[in-house]
Amino acid sequence: MNQLMTNIRVLDMSRVFSGPWVGQMFADFGADVIKVERPVQGDDTRHQGFRVCNADGEETAETSSFVAMNRGKRSITIDLSQADGQALVRKLAAQCDVLVENFKAGDLNRYGLGYTALREINPRLVYCSISGFGQTGPYSSRPGYDPIFQSMSGLMAMTGAPDGTPGAGPQKVGYAVSDLTAGFYALAATLAALHHRDTVSGEGQHIDIALLDAQIGAISHMAQNYFASGKQPPRLGTSSEITCPYQAFECSDGQVMVSVGNDSQFRKFASAIGHPELATDERFLTNPKRAAHRAVLIPLIAEALAEKPVAHWLHALEQQGIPCGPINDFAQAFADPQVVHRELRRTLEHPTIGALPFVANPVKFSGTPVRYQRPPPLLGEHTNEILTELLGMSLSEIGRLREARVV
């Protein structure tokens, strides 16, 4: 296991995507992550996505959504609606450094499990709340999922095909970008709060992360374009409003993505596609000029690239140092030599699935490499282990809790 954070214990009381994403990253970095789930039902993502098949092709109870977000954790089931369940959480929180939750704002206060209550038990606890709209404000009590925050943040308004073209209109990004963006902000904030606790104050604090805030924060460079110009960034499909050429082009057998980032690259690009005269055309001398005259420039480039296959252009452009790449599906992405070399597809042995493929953590540490030793847990798999190890409970005590359906 990664040795970076073996001294950190995380109580993961979250579900769905954003909170579990934080917990999984902590687990990848070596923390002991205890996932608290509802008895019987568990995390919502245990019922979302595709059923994962075992080596015999038979469906298991595990889903693709759950296993993508929960490796490295231990699972305990606790009924928070019961007083005994609330007491168990308080005892666990007393022994943890971090608590991550993504209930609706204020929901855990009803159970005596909000930050103020747990701070009295454990002043060193860093308590991270992730919600749709945050802990304050007129929308704080509203529920929400990723598409809502993509739409409200302005992301969808600038994503999709241009007006007047087939399929024009706002489009959603193809994955739960708001959830994972919020998760990244939450991880960074929690690590910063732990650092402050351990080097400055000796105390934890409450972190308030909203998916809407995080999504707006993540597109701040586009918002800055709006602040500077007063103009809404248009939908441009695969292209860029401020850099040109910076988009996908049709080749004779597929598409290639081209990203020409500066004037020197454009001169090399023009030569590589057999039209060096474009680099000396007054309209295309600088990036702002190319962006202003894209309606003239892009058809000229498109006509040239359409004549030959993707492989030809990848080779020709790479020889000139022009950023470019194919538009891969997942099969192509995971077969790419660079992706294979970076070992982004790994496997873990799972008790019911067998060899479970997963996407590795992309962070490469020189001294403490990420190691994957614990697969995504079965529901409640570690309940006895956690209650005996951390709370010193006997099997008979745990048995009584099971009879009362507390765990």
TrEMBL record:
Family matches, as Pfam families: CoA_transf_3 (PF02515)
Entry's Gene Ontology molecular function annotations: CoA-transferase activity
Keyword annotations: Transferase
Domain of life of the native organism: Bacteria
InterPro entries assigned: CoA-transferase_III_domain (IPR050483), CoA-Trfase_fam_III (IPR003673), CoA-Trfase_III_dom3_sf (IPR044855), CoA-Trfase_III_dom_1_sf (IPR023606)
Coiled coil: none
Transferase in keyword set: yes
Keyword Zinc-finger on entry: no
Xref: PANTHER family: SUCCINATE--HYDROXYMETHYLGLUTARATE COA-TRANSFERASE (PTHR48207)
Protein name: Lipid metabolism-like protein
Taxonomic classification: Bacteria, Pseudomonadati, Pseudomonadota, Betaproteobacteria, Burkholderiales
